[in-house]
Amino acid sequence: MCEDGNVIGNELSNVIDNVSINSEYCKDVEQSIRKKFRKTIWCKFTKAINEYDLVKEGDCIAVCISGGKDSMLMAKLFQELKLHNKFDFTVKFLVMDPGYNKVNRALIEENAGKLNVPIEIFQSDIFDSVFNIEKSPCYICARMRRGHLYAFARELGCNKIALGHHYDDVIETILMGMLYGAQIQTMMPKLHSTNFEGMELIRPMYLIREDDIKAWRDYNGLTFLQCACKFTENCADCESEENISKRIETKNIIAALKKTNPFVESNIFRSVENVNLDTVVAYKSKGVKHSFLDTYDDV
User: Fold this and answer.
1) Residue 156: inside a domain
2) 192: which residues sit within 8 A by CB, 6+ positions away?
3) What is the DSSP annotation of 87-116?
4) Are 250 and 258 a contacting pair, CB within 8 Å?
5) Integer Cα distance of 133 and 154 in angstroms
């Protein structure tokens, strides 16, 4: 009995020690957001919140965590926002498990514990559902995951879901649309859901650079998932090989242009804020195509 008691006592002591270590570590991580990365991360996060009116009083926001660096940082930023915001809103930290292997699932749970993020995990079988689909499995998977997130967030009483797309995602999407899709479009900072009435998608990391997210991760010695997809577990993002190569090519194009034009990234970003319809041959609005000829003779 005494030996058993000692074992239990030692285990309890280890648990308390681990909690204490995690608590101190989490404080350091939060301090880094407030101090070292205040200008590059925190201020840009709050600027996006204010500039695009992403968070309103009474909102219940599902912060969607994939396990990667972007979404985990977003979770910490929302916790910080809760501490300082002047009006009341609710945040729930949502993890959808579409069929992660045990190692990836454990890493997400470990990081959430280390960072003191109270995640809610719900299970789905999306990976299994799309595994044998030959045509556009990544597109279908992404659509299904988005739908599951909306549905579960609504069950929790949320009216918004927050995703961790950042500034680099935005400018790469703009350029990829032009080069590969023959269209000018952007990744919007917020969207009304077309399938879930009353729900919105918001992107509060919209103005934060990916290099700054990586710097925060490395400064705090954190390791996150790269990709947990069954198709491309070793890739940087859960996309098809074709889309990955297109995104990498686009990154390289931007990097090459930046060597001679240091403002190229901000120019790409701002280009979709300065569209001059008087010089556009045609455009689409709500699915309807409009031509410059429609009003050409209206003088």
Assistant:
1) yes
2) 199, 200
3) S--EEEEEEEESS--HHHHHHHHHHHHHTT
4) no
5) 28
Concatenated DSSP letters for 226-275? Answer: S---SS-TTSSSSS-HHHHHHHHHHHHHHHHHHHH-TTHHHHHHHHTTS-
> Which residues lie closer than 8 Å to 190 by C-beta, 6 or more apart?
52, 53, 54, 200, 201, 202, 203
Domain contains 22 = no
Name the phi and psi angles at 282, rounded to 5. -155, 155
In a domain, 35, yes or no: no
At 202, which CATH number?
Answer: 3.40.50.620
Count the domains in the chain.
Answer: 1
Q: Does residue 15 fall inside a structural domain?
A: no
Domain that holds residue 143: 43-282
pLDDT digits (tens, 9 = 90+) for 2-59: 555 555 455 544 444 455 667 899 999 999 999 999 999 999 999 999 999 999 999 9
Q: What phi-psi label fits residue 2: left (phi over 0), alpha (psi between -120 and 50 degrees) or beta?
A: alpha
Report pTM.
0.86
